[in-house]
Amino acid sequence: MILIYILALSALTSHAQVKPGTQVTAPLHAMKVDYPTPYEPTSTLDIKKTLDRIFNYLNAVTPAQMVNKITGAPVNDLSTIDTNTILKQGDFRLTSYEWGVAYSGILVAAETIGDLKYSKYVKQRFTFLADWIPAEKKLEKAGAYLYNHYPLQQPIETKALDDAGAICAAMIIATTAGLNNNLRPVIDHLINFVGKEEVRLPDGTLAKMRPQKNTLWLDDLYMGVPALAQIGKLTGDKKYFDDAVEPGEII
């Protein structure tokens, strides 16, 4: 009898010593991990917090503002533009290929989350560009920029698909959504470059002359196809859809 009691007590003691949170008590995939970044399902709230943190940074470092490069004073009057008028320094260029992608992404975030500050960000920058590009273009045609370098040169003297495709697609999306209604002259200029001036192979494939002649870049698909598809949607002209589909079929 005593022996049975001792064995039972031993079994209970052994069971009590099993540590919680081990493979003995839980399947491996269900255990809590001790990583700096927890690999767990992310909540909607956590996603919004992360997006807001990124947005607040981007909003702060991409000012849509002209300044006088000598005095640093803001320039808000379009009629006072001169060769001393430059973009306020930021961390990213408002008209770059990368920022064209960013604008599209921010618009998707605005639609998904329903937070107006995201769409407001894009609207403010595109309104700024729609106002200042014609002003700079007029100055450039008058021969004011002697050294052929000025703040918004990319969307005025467009020389590469990188200068046109991604930002053109984003501008069309903003226009189609009713966010901006003054971008059409800029859009028409940029899509003309994508459709008619960018280097193409004999079969119509978008190409570049760097690093070697007739080089195919995979990201040209993003810089070319979305812009062509979006202008087709905006205008209803089938030729743009045909042009957008062709590179994908070839690749």
Fold blueprint:
Layout: H1 2-16, H2 44-61, E1 66-68, E2 74-75, E3 85-87, H3 97-113, H4 116-141, H5 161-176, H6 184-197, H7 220-235, H8 238-250
Antiparallel strand pairs: 1-2, 1-3
Helix pairs in contact: 3-4, 3-5, 5-6, 5-7, 7-8
Report the CATH topology name of the domain at 94-250. Answer: Glycosyltransferase
- The proportion of residues in beta strands is under 5%
User: Gyration radius, to the nearest Å?
Assistant: 28 Å
Order of helices and strands: HHEEEHHHHHH
Placed side by side, the strands forming the largest sheet appear as: 2-1-3
Mean pLDDT across residues: 88
| Largest β sheet strand count, sense and barrel closure | 3 strands, antiparallel
The CATH C-level name of the domain at 94-250 is: Mainly Alpha
**CATH-defined architecture of the domain at 94-250:** Alpha/alpha barrel
Pick out the low-confidence regions.
3-9, 11-16
Number of helices: 8
